[in-house]
Amino acid sequence: ATARVPPPKEEFGDLVAALPRKEQFLDGRFYQGFWLPEHYTPGVIAFQRRFTPRPDDMVLVSYPKCGTTWLKALAFAVMTRAAYPAGDHPLLRLNPHDCIPFVEDVFTDGHEAKLDRLPSPRLINTHTPYPLLPEGVTGGGCKVVYICRDPKDMVVSLYHFLRRLQPDLSFADMFDSVTDGTVPYGPMWDHVLGYWHASLAHPDRVFFLKYEDLLQDAGEHVRALAEFMGRPFSPAEEAAGAVASVVELCSFDKMKDLEANKRGTAGTYKSMPRDAFFRKGVAGDWVSHMSPEMAARLDDIFRDKFGGTGLTI
Ligand code: A3P
C-alpha cells in the first residue's frame, strides 16, 4: 500500500502558523524572503519539497497579472500546434487556465497525483519565486519560462482583478504594498530579479520574457519561445504562416471574445470569473490610475533595485 500523503494544510500547518503574517487584501505569510498569499503558502511549500520534475517538463512562471494567461496560451499553442487541425484547437473551447494546471491550486488542494497522471511533455504554471522552486527545477531538472511586466501596469491589473471579489478595495493600499514589498508574491523586484539572474546564468534552461516585448512583436518572441521549448518552427511551417496562426489564436481580441473565456470560473481559490483574466491587454493603462508622482516613485524604486543588473523596466 502507498503511504498516505497528508494534505499540505495539515502537514505544514504549524510551520505556516509560525510565519510572520500580514492582513491585507490578500492575507500574506512571509516565507523565505517572500510574502506568499496565506491560502497558498502550504501548497507552495509542498511544491518546493515534493515536486520532482521530468526532464521535458516546462514550468511557466509569472509574477501575478504580468501575462500568465497569455504565456499559458502561447506555450500551449506552440506545444500542441501539430496535434490539431486549423480551426479546431482546444484553446477555442477552453480557457488557458483550464489547459495548464496552476501548481498552487493543485498542491493546496492535495491533488498532486493529477500532475503524475499528465502525459509528457508537461506544462505547469506557478507564481513561485525562483529561490523557492523545488531543487530539482533550479538544479537543471527541467526548463523554465518567466514573464514579467511594468510594475505600474501590474498593480493596476491586480487592482481590477481583485476588485471583482472585493469591490471596496483601495488602490492606495495596494500601491503601498507594492512599494513596501508586501504585495502577494512580493517583493516584486526580488521575484523578477531571481528569474532574471537565472536566465543570464542558464540561458538554455530559463527563458525570460516581458509582456511589453510580446505586445511589440509577438511573432519574434513566439519563434524564440518555440526554439527554447525544443519545438522550433520548420521552414515549411514558417511558409505556411504557423507563427502568425499561433499569435492570432492567442491574441487578446480573439481570446476575449471566446465563449470559454466569458463564462464560468477558473481556479479553485475563490473561483475567479474567467472574463476577469481579459481586461484591456495593453501597456501603459497605469496613466489613468496613478499620479505622475506615484508613477515616478514606483519607477525610482525599481530602477534602484534593478541597477547594475542589465534589466530595465
Ligand atoms: P490588464 O488588466 O492590464 O488588461 P495574468 O494573466 O497574469 O493574470 O495577467 C492578466 C493581464 O494580462 C490583464 O492585463 C489581461 O488583460 C492581460 N491578458 C490576458 N490575456 C491576454 C492576451 N491574450 N494578450 C494580451 N494580454 C492579455
TrEMBL record:
Keywords: Transferase
Superkingdom per UniProt: Eukaryota
EC number: 2.8.2.-
Pfam families the UniProt entry points to: Sulfotransfer_1 (PF00685)
Coiled coil: none
Domain Sulfotransferase: 55-310
An MF annotation (GO) of this entry: sulfotransferase activity
Family: Belongs to the sulfotransferase 1 family.
Record-linked PANTHER family: SULFOTRANSFERASE SULT
UniProt-recorded name of the protein: Sulfotransferase
